[in-house]
């Protein structure tokens, strides 16, 4: 279930990097290649966020990636904090195998461990409290987010920092007026994905509705909120092949997940955008870009 490197809940779901399914169940293992390629594309955002975190966390002994997926970001933490041990925690064992392989390939395997299990309970298997605990869009896959944050806080060392990536803005890939179909397609897709996300949240075990005031929730978990900052991913047109592939994969997941709720005109437009043989498709059109905003909230456990 829970991992990150998601993007928006809107992407909410090609984002753990996540992907939508027809229902609200998500097969993260099936999405592994997409999760990896997306996290690699988003590396500039993660590196910028880590540099910001590094102003407060100078030499962490233990960095925990709670909801790590295939470990792309976990390995970036190992790069950003070269003296730290990094532990990737995730509920999908095959993704953790990919994480271990990546760490070995990048030469950080000697400082890299994994813990398999569902959040937040799996954190109980850490051998020491975390100096930095990173949770990137894993929290919103847990039914009781307030209780989960309290559990996360309980696994921080005194002076340890919890960094929570939640929220931001829906990403944009195309002009408002595409030249085909009715203008504003992405805004209409966003609305359908918000509805999908609400259903996904409601169907989680022990789901509790919560005002998503993350600083207030961090404070309620017994932590001191220390900062909020939003990081941009700005890949202007013309997109390179990797960005195009990401846009196509994202829109394909959206088509699969919420396409039936579109009206016939929008469905036809989306199908044209995804048809590699169509000159209006995202595979070839010159105006494809990627623009997204990703918000990180930080809080410290008092010493």
TrEMBL record:
Highest taxon above the source species: Bacteria
Instruction: Recall the GO molecular function terms of this protein's record.
Output: methyltransferase activity
Residue stretches making up the Methyltransferase domain: 63-160
Keyword Transferase found: yes
Quote the Pfam families the UniProt record gives: Methyltransf_25
An example GO BP is: methylation
Which SUPFAM superfamilies does UniProt cross-reference here?
Answer: S-adenosyl-L-methionine-dependent methyltransferases
Query: Quick one: where's region Disordered?
Result: 1-25
Instruction: Return the protein name.
Output: Class I SAM-dependent methyltransferase
Q: Per the UniProt entry, what species is this protein from, by scientific name?
A: Streptomyces nogalater
Task: Return the Basic residues bias intervals.
Answer: 1-21
Keywords linked to the UniProt accession: Methyltransferase, Transferase
């Amino acid at each position: 279930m829970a991992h990150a490197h998601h993007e928006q809940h809107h992407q909410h779901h090609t984002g753990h990097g996540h992907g939508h399914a027809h229902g609200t169940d998500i097969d993260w293992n099936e999405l592994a290649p997409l999760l990896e390629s997306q996290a690699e594309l988003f590396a500039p955002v993660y590196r910028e966020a880590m540099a910001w975190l590094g102003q407060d966390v100078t030499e962490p002994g233990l960095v925990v990636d709670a909801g790590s997926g295939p470990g792309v970001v976990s390995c970036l933490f190992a790069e950003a904090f070269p003296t730290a041990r990094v532990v990737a925690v995730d509920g999908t064992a095959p993704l953790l195998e990919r994480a271990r392989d990546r760490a070995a390939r990048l030469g950080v395997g000697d400082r890299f461990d994994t813990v398999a299990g569902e959040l937040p309970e799996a954190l109980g298997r850490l051998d020491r409290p975390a100096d930095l605990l990173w949770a990137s869009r894993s929290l919103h896959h847990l039914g009781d987010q307030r209780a989960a944050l309290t559990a996360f806080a309980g696994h921080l060392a005194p002076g340890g920092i919890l960094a929570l990536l939640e929220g931001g803005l829906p990403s944009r890939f195309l002009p408002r007026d595409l030249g085909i179909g009715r203008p504003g397609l992405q805004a209409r897709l966003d609305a359908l994905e918000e509805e999908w996300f609400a259903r996904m949240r409601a169907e989680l075990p022990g789901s509790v509705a919560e005002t998503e005031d993350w600083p207030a929730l961090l404070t309620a978990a017994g932590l001191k909120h220390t900062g909020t900052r939003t990081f941009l991913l700005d890949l202007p047109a013309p997109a390179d092949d990797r960005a195009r592939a990401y846009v196509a994969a994202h829109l394909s997941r959206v088509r699969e997940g919420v396409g039936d709720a579109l009206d016939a005109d929008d469905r036809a437009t989306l199908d044209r955008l995804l048809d590699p043989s169509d000159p209006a498709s995202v595979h070839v059109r010159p105006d494809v870009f990627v623009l997204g905003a990703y918000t990180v909230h930080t809080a410290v456990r008092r010493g």
